[in-house]
Amino acid sequence: MATSAIGPGFLTQTSVFTSQFAASFGFVILASIILDIGAQINIWRIIAVSEKRAQDIANMVFPGLGYFLALLIVIGGLAFNIGNIAGAGLGFNVLFGIDVKTGAIVSALIAIGIFLSKEAGKAMDRFTQILGLLMIGLTLYVAIKSAPPVGEAVIRTFAPVVEEKDRAAFFMAIVTLVGGTVGGYITFAGGHRLLDAGMKGPDALPQVTRSSVSGILITAMMRTVLFLAAFGVVAAGLALDTKNPPASVFKLAAGDIGFKLFGVVMWAAAITSVVGSAYTSVSFIRTFSEKLEKNHKWIIIGFIIVSTIVFALIGRPVKTLILVGALNGFILPIALGIMLIAAYKSKIVGNYKHPLWLTIFGALVVGVMSYMGGVTLLKEIPKLFI
C-alpha cells in the first residue's frame, strides 16, 4: 500500500505544492495523515472481518454498487498506471541515458516478470519492501544536503499561513494528497493483499489495524522527507523546473549526484506503483466470474501492457499527475461511505461490532473530503486546463 502510494505522482505533487506553499505545506501533510488514518483503518477492518473484497461488499450493500465501485477504481488505476509507467521510463532515462519510452518498456517487462514468478505474491512483497526502504534512504540524503529551515517547517505545520485567495488551492492540496495516499485503488492495495495473504477474520483485527496505520506512517515519512528536501531548495530562493519539479529538487540540492539519485528514486517509486496498481485494479474485477479469477494473473499482465502502450502514444504531463491524484480523492468518500454502511450489516460482518469512534472518525473523513473535494472541483480543477 505504501509503495503503491509513493509513485511519480506522489513525487510531483509533493514538489509542486511545496514550491507553492513553502513551510505551510507541512500542515497539508499533517491534515492528510489524519484523514488517511481515519479512512484506512475503517476500510481495512471491514474488509478483514467480512473476509470479502470491497466490490463484493459493495454489491451486498446494494446490488450493482460493486460494479460501479470497480469501474471507478479500474479507471483511476489505469490512469495512474500510465503515469507510473512513464515515471519508470524517466528513471531509466536519468540513470542510463536511454530513451524514456524504451525505459518504460523495459520496466514493464520487469513488472510482468514479477507476476510470472511462481511465488508472485512473495516476490511482489519483497520487491516493494526493498525498493521502499531504498527510496526513503536516498531521499533522506537529499533532504540533509538541501539543509531546510526545519524550525520554520515545524511551526507552519501547526500554524500555517495561507492567504484567502489561496484557500481553495490549499484544499486542493489536501484532497490531492489524501487521494494520492488512500484514494482510488491505493487503500485497497493493502486491504486486498491482506486477504490474499490469509490475514482475515476478527482474530486478525489487531494486526490489521496496526498494519493500516504503519502503511500510512511509512508514506508520511517519505512525504515529509521529500517536503523537507524541496523546502530547503525553495527556502534558498531557487526555482523548481516546472517540467520536472522533483528532478530539480534532487539536482539543486545535491548536484549531479542528486540527479542520478532522483533517477533511482523515480524508477523505484514508479515500478512499485506499477505492480501495486495493476494488482489492485484487477483484484476489483477478478471475483465477478470464475473465468476472471482463474486468469487474473494474465489480466494483470494485460493491464500493464495496455498502460505501457497508452503511455507510448500520449505521454505523461505534470498536470495530469496532479489531476489524477485529485480525482482519486473524489472516489474516497464514496468508497469509505459504502464501507461504513457495510459495517452495520450483519449479513456482511456477522456478529462484529464496529467501534463507534471509528464510525464517527470515518464519517468526518467522508464529510471533510466531500466538502474540500467540491471546492476543488469548482475552483481549482478548471485551472489545470487553462
Automatic annotation (TrEMBL):
Tree of life domain: Bacteria
Localization of this protein: Membrane
Topological category with respect to the lipid bilayer: Multi-pass membrane protein
Database matches in InterPro entries: NRAMP_fam (IPR001046)
Keywords attached to this entry: Membrane, Transmembrane, Transmembrane helix
Signal peptide: none
Annotated TM spans: 20-39, 60-82, 94-116, 128-148, 168-195, 216-239, 259-285, 297-315, 321-344, 356-378
Main location, first listed in the record: membrane
Protein name: NRAMP family divalent metal transporter
